[in-house]
UniProtKB/TrEMBL annotation:
Its cofactor is FAD. It catalyses: N(6)-dimethylallyladenine + A + H2O = 3-methyl-2-butenal + adenine + AH2. It comes from Musa balbisiana (Banana). Residues 56-237 form the FAD-binding PCMH-type domain. GO terms for biological process: cytokinin metabolic process. GO terms for molecular function: cytokinin dehydrogenase activity; FAD binding. The keyword GTP-binding does not apply. Keywords: FAD, Flavoprotein, Oxidoreductase, Signal. This is cytokinin dehydrogenase.
Length: 524
């Protein structure tokens, strides 16, 4: 029997404070409180005990699916007032990679399966001259996209490559993709938040109101509160996308062109691309990697003749958005932009598709991997911000050194502009005007028979990459950080560490929230 119970949230907290976390469902009183569902169902608990990374496991006591922000308030407030300490962690779609959203012995708030109220319509703000939409913290970005497109032809400005992530989840980290050079990360495109702090207080915050909480929560790794509502900036959605990939064998030329393109962020839209990314190619299959639906099997990209002479290759990926009214001029615009670049001649590959299909490209690849049983495997990902001044050293030591000629998934590399990131947020980036995301999006295949595809091998390789950067004095910052010691976290946050500790004491003094991040606060 499924133990999905409509319980007073204070009741379970009271029980855990008196008899510990081994309470049987039969001992609980079935009394409704709010719209939330609190479940001890073994299948729900087991689901909440793991994440996309597949490298960490920790079972919670229970899973709560809130029906409204008030349910989150009641749970967190009861936990805060309880004599027995226990953690509360919010979970979106479960795409953390190192157990960041796990809550051992506590309660997981399953935000992406909660809230039953209808979504508000997109609205126009006369004060900003921009459109916006208010969304639930557990809403998936794909659902936000579909809603805003259907109601005004609008869309958020900044994205992640994969849309099946929760709004609250990406805003708690940053939310980045190839649009970040122009619009900034997703945390730079939020007007207002509703946040349930670790004291169980529901606070509305923005740049003008409760600004310290607002900036702290953005990129704050869930440490200061649970985002229940976010006001997201919108723009008119384009109709179509011209998607272009070009190849390089010279890393200096590749990064020079990438940095040129992101420097055009302030240019007229006809004089810049709308999306700039890139990746490393160690074998032909990776230009058609699982991140994209760039070409169908009937029209593959053939690069073997180029690679035979070049060895390692780098792919620069760009898009140009356009409307149906501009269809006659899009070729000319793209050709003018490509004319500034120094890629390998005859290595231009293009496709054209609807805007929504481009944004949802990774999900289409996900479906193919799921069909082959290759999606639900361990993902020992490593995401780094690398200062632009050291990216060539990183190439020599990692891409052409540690990685060798083996690949276990896409390796992304693309630059961003620091001034598009608000330094008041909790996110930390390198201290240079331009820095790169380097993302090793690995999949471990334990049954492949290849030891270089094992979780242990890939985890050791991640460690070697971090050790190389440390030994070479490359001041990287981890994106989606995975540190354990207090010294590592202090080094990660640098000058922001003192502020981070102070805000933790202010907004979550019992250190109950998002304990899966593994930050050993001195208050505990």
């Amino acid at each position: 029997m499924a133990h999905t119970l409509l319980l007073p949230l204070f009741f379970i907290c009271g029980l855990t404070s008196t008899v510990g976390p081994t309470v049987e469902p039969a001992e609980m009183l079935l009394q409704p409180a709010g719209e939330g569902q609190l479940s001890l169902d073994p299948s729900e608990v087991a689901t909440a005990a793991v994440d996309f990374g597949g490298v960490a496991r920790a079972e919670p006591l229970a899973v709560m699916r809130p029906g409204c922000a008030g349910d989150v308030v009641r749970l967190v407030r009861a936990a805060y007032r309880s004599a027995r300490w226990f953690p509360v962690s919010d979970r979106g779609h479960g795409h953390s990679t190192n157990g960041q959203a796990l809550s051992p012995g506590g309660v997981v708030v399953q935000m992406s399966r909660g809230r039953i109220a209808p979504r508000p319509m997109p609205a126009y703000s006369p004060s900003t001259g921009e459109y916006y939409v208010d969304v639930w913290g557990g809403d998936l970005w794909v659902d936000v996209l579909n809603w805003t497109l259907a109601n005004g032809g609008l869309a958020p400005k900044s994205w992640t490559d994969y849309l099946y992530l929760s709004v609250g989840g990406t805003l708690s980290n940053a939310g980045i993709s190839g649009q970040a050079f122009h619009h900034g990360p997703q945390i730079s495109n939020v007007y207002e938040l509703d946040v349930v702090t670790g004291k169980g207080e529901l606070i509305t915050c923005s740049e003008e109101q409760n600004s310290e909480l607002f900036h702290g929560v953005l990129g704050g790794l869930g440490q200061f509160g649970i985002i229940t509502r976010a006001r997201i900036a919108l723009e008119t959605a384009p109709h179509r996308v011209r998607w272009i990939r070009v190849l390089y064998s010279d890393f200096a030329a590749f990064t020079r062109d990438q940095e040129l393109l992101v420097s055009l962020h302030g240019a007229h839209r006809s004089e810049r691309f709308d999306y700039v990314e890139g990746f490393v190619i160690v074998d032909e299959g990776l230009i058609n990697n699982w991140r994209s639906s760039f070409f169908s099997p009937k029209n593959p990209v053939k690069i073997s003749s180029v690679q035979a002479n070049a060895g390692l290759l780098y792919c620069l990926e760009m898009t140009k958005n356009y409307d149906s009214s501009a269809a006659d001029s899009i070729d000319e615009v793209v050709e003018a932009l490509l004319g500034q670049l120094g890629y390998i001649p005859a290595s231009v590959f293009t496709t054209d598709l609807p805007y929504v299909d481009f944004l949802d490209r990774v999900h289409k690849a996900e479906m193919r991997l799921r069909a082959k049983g290759l999606w639900a495997v361990p993902h020992p990902w490593l995401n780094l911000f690398v200062p632009a001044s050291r990216i060539a050293d990183f190439d020599r030591g990692v891409f052409r050194g540690i990685l060798g000629n083996k690949s276990s998934g896409p390796t992304l590399i693309y630059p961003m502009n620091k001034h598009k990131w608000d330094d008041r947020s909790s996110v930390v980036t390198p201290h240079e005007d331009t820095f790169y995301l380097v993302a090793f999006l690995r999949s471990a295949l334990p049954d492949s028979g290849d030891p270089t595809q094992s979780l242990e091998y890939l985890s050791r390789q991640n460690k070697k990459i971090l050790e190389f950067c440390d030994d070479a004095g490359i001041e990287i910052k981890q994106y989606l950080p995975d540190h354990r010691s207090r010294a590592e976290w202090a080094r990660h946050f640098g000058p922001k560490w003192g502020r981070f500790l102070r805000q933790k004491g202010q907004f979550d003094p019992k250190c109950m929230l998002a304990t899966g991040q593994g930050i050993p606060f001195p208050l505990v």
